[in-house]
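Box S1 | Example of a co-folding query
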Amino acid sequence: MNQTLRKQDPAVAGGFVPIAALDHASIVEAYRRWAGIYDTAFGGISSKARLRAVSMVNRLPGKDVLEVGVGTGLALPRYDSDKRITGIDLSKEMLRKARERTRKDALTNVQALHEMDAEATSFDDASFDIAVAMFVASVVPNPKRLLAEMRRLVRPGGDILLVNHFAAAKGPRWWIERALAPASRALGWHPDFAMDAIFGADDLARIEIEPEPRFGIFTLVRLRV
Ligand SMILES: C[S@@+](CC[C@H](N)C(=O)[O-])C[C@H]1O[C@@H](n2cnc3c(N)ncnc32)[C@H](O)[C@@H]1O
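Box S1 (continued) | Returned holo structure for S-adenosylmethionine
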């Protein structure tokens, strides 16, 4: 693989206050349970938004791509073969599925799949051209720290892409999302996740937002580094 690994940097791990009760242990436990049925339960409804994100990655010029929270690797076969993909995830069981897929589909452009915390990785600064996180921002314990880490890992001129469900500001969805919020731990994600939980005011002024087509619930966000 192209990227050199470095020791965990405690400075990367500090500095932000977690927004909610999802901790690493509950994420690992939730995705241990989800891994076997994830593709069936979630693969379908998320596929269009995932494809839009991967298509954007493929259109961008950089070759070194970090997929954060790679999960079972549903996106891996969709990258162009000239993109060099590194995937990371906290969940052994999800990664096992991603490794099986990589092997089965002979995905030679997948450079490595690491069990690693996306909020405090062991990669050098500026190791990648693109960092993409699909359906991950509302899952991690500390989204602002995730974004800071992705920013650290992307070369100047590169891109951060996020696909996520962001909470509605009003209407019936607002009520449903708030009603589901106490189930965060069991679900393994935050249904009431708002954009300002990850982006600061400066980023909110700069991000490019591509909403999901009509009735969709996932938004693609691009932040140029
Ligand atoms: C909803 S799944 C999304 C999987 C995949 N991106 C997809 O498109 O299907 C969220 C994934 O993020 C992973 N995850 C959550 N917190 C993480 C963290 N701090 N570091 C790395 N992976 C994390 C989970 O283990 C899980 O595989």
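The helical segments are 10-13, 24-34, 38-59, 92-104, 143-153, 171-180, 184-187, 201-206. The longest helix spans residues 38-59.
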